[in-house]
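Tokens in:
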């Protein structure tokens, strides 16, 4: 018997209304991508940044990176080398990640491996569509077979770039994934998790 992790949807909805310091540095007229993760090698943020760089040629966008870790300096250096500092905000570790997720047009999850991928569920609870690399094992457990979000192959910057671009091009698809994500968050609620344990 497998009992998935659960989320408190009511608490998320309340916490998501708080301010999101750091976003004021980004252009308001651009679509906003968000990632919340420990900035370490296994989270594969380098893949996201490369996809983000390629995306700019056809889809100008902004990115907020929530989290800290040993790779932060290298990741910030890469953005500086590309001259994209005005479109990327590294806001560091935040006790409350939900305001950033709620304000984003897309939540992007990259990882070399994953136990469950709780941040994807958090983004879904905020109503933010999710795109994730199909690494072992968490993303497919949360997203299903491209039902509650979009899965793309891992270690493939072209595929990730194309996936993000396709969602930015289709607001209707993003809206549908937003609603389906909320459905998934209710399916994986903390109340249901507790009931399963009981």
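Residues out:
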């Amino acid at each position: 018997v497998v009992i998935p992790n659960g989320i408190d949807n009511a608490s998320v909805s309340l916490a998501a209304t708080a301010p999101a310091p750091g976003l004021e540095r980004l252009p308001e007229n651009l679509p906003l991508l968000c990632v919340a993760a420990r900035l370490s090698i296994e989270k594969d943020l380098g893949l996201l940044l490369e996809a983000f760089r390629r995306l700019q040629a056809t889809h100008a966008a902004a990115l907020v990176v929530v989290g800290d870790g040993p790779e932060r300096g290298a990741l910030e250096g890469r953005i500086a080398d590309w001259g994209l500092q005005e479109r990327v905000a590294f806001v560091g570790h935040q006790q409350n990640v939900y305001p950033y997720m709620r304000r984003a047009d897309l939540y992007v999850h990259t990882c070399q491996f994953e136990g469950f991928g709780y941040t994807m569920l958090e983004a879904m609870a905020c109503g933010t569509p999710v795109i994730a690399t199909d690494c072992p094992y968490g993303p497919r457990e949360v997203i299903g077979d491209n039902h509650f979000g979009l899965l793309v192959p891992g270690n493939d910057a072209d595929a990730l770039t194309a996936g993000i671009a396709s969602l930015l091009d289709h607001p209707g698809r993003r809206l549908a994934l937003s609603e389906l994500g909320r459905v998934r968050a209710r399916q994986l609620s903390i109340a249901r998790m507790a009931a399963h344990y009981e």
